[in-house]
Specification:
single chain; 394 residues; mainly alpha; Growth Hormone, Chain: A; MFS_dom
Length: 394
């Protein structure tokens, strides 16, 4: 059921939850550009340090399945406030990591503790906003996530020579702590009630029922496989610019500056275009852009052209995954929508973790070959999408 809230309370919650989504994605994307320096500082290998991406994304994806039902039973407020506090604590602990093994373990813990923040925020918007008014808060949330991606991928590498990666995590932890204290001070603005609880058995039975439908399987498969593609490439972009152009940390940060910018600037426009022209038309274009950008990266490009290709890659993401999320909400009625979204988040972040590992495996054939294989993979998704989404979705 929907819970009424004062306009002022809703604006406060929107700001808090948008800030939380920003911080979740910022700290998530902070790590990939730091792989070269982490390898050096921990006297490890790129193969081991590269596990920092799946070590976070796979636990994150699995945990999203359970936080929705948990917040149904215990309430959105206590679960969300707890997770915000744990996110801050995990940042401080990561900064103290003495070995790569401890660093990876703490990334696993961080994935688990942050996995519920965005899904619970989406569920909370469903609690306090009527259906006809949910577009704006969700737009703000996804825009904040795109901003977190942009600043995380850029600042991670750029600030390291200035303050060091440990200080980056301390600073991020400080910002998360401020956010937690702010949310706790505004706890009265959180609705006190939540929808009826869902049992663990119902979580799996509902997921099973969803996956029995061909339309659902196709959509969730695309969420997963497109996540494999984008994460696999992004996780190694820092290594790419280091190897191809011998950039230092600040140079890598600047080269990645365009990643996430399309989502920040064009997110609302892409959503409006999807409503006007149909998601089944925009999604294949996004898949094609992703394939083209990665194919170009495999060839000898000038530095500025490679940075532009990274921006186009980001645009390909913004024209696919957010639109998939909108389609997921049409799979079920409102009473099961939260679980459908949670399952989508699970598939997406499992794809993120899998992609980094798969790309690393293909790198045994060389970086350029890995890029070409992933470009071909995304091109095949584009070709299948032309037919699948034309005939399966209105």
């Amino acid at each position: 059921m929907e819970i009424s809230a004062r306009i002022g309370s809703r604006k406060t919650l929107l700001t808090i939850l948008g800030s939380a989504a920003f911080m979740v994605l910022l700290q998530a994307y902070l790590v990939a550009p730091l792989v070269p320096v982490l390898t050096h500082d921990f006297q490890s290998t790129d193969a081991i340090t590269g596990l920092a991406v799946p070590a976070y994304t796979i636990p994150y994806g699995l945990s999203t399945l359970f936080y929705g039902p948990l917040s149904d039973r215990l309430g959105r407020k206590p679960v969300l406030l707890t997770l915000l506090g744990l996110m801050a604590l995990s940042m401080f602990l990561i900064a103290l990591s003495p070995t790569i093994e401890i660093f990876l373990l703490l990334r696993v813990v961080t994935g688990i503790t942050t996995g519920g923040i965005v899904p619970i925020s989406i569920a909370l918007f469903g609690d306090i906003y009527p259906f006809a008014e949910r577009g704006k808060p969700l737009g703000v949330l996804y825009g904040a996530m795109a901003g977190g991606m942009t600043f995380g991928s850029t600042l991670g590498a750029y600030l390291n020579p200035l303050i060091g990666w440990r200080s980056e995590f301390v600073t991020t932890g400080g910002l998360c702590l401020i956010l937690f204290l702010w949310a706790a001070s505004e706890h009265r603005n959180f609705p006190a009630k939540s929808p009826a609880g869902t049992t663990l058995k119902e979580v799996f039975s509902n997921a099973k029922a969803l996956m029995q439908r061909r339309q659902s399987r196709s959509l969730y498969a695309y969420v997963f496989l497109n996540g494999v593609f984008h994460s696999g490439v992004f996780a190694w972009l820092g290594y790419f610019f280091k190897l191809k152009f011998n950039l230092d940390d600040q140079g890598i940060g600047l080269a990645l500056l365009g990643y996430g910018v399309p989502g920040m600037l064009l997110g609302i426009s892409i959503g409006n275009a999807a409503d006007k022209y149909g998601r089944q038309r925009l999604i294949p274009i996004g898949l094609a852009l992703g394939a083209l950008s990665v194919c170009l990266l495999a060839f000898k490009l000038p530095l500025l052209a490679a940075a532009a290709a990274v921006t186009v890659l980001s645009l390909g993401y913004d024209m696919t995954q957010p639109l998939f999320a909108g389609m997921v909400t049409s799979l079920v009625d409102h009473s099961k929508r939260g679980q459908a979204v949670g399952l989508s988040a699970c598939m997406l972040f499992l794809g993120y973790g899998t992609g980094a590992l798969v790309f690393q495996w293909f790198m045994t054939w060389g970086l350029d070959m890995a890029l070409i294989v992933f470009a071909i993979f995304e091109a095949l998704l584009f070709l299948f999408a032309l037919r699948l989404f034309k005939f399966s979705w209105s």
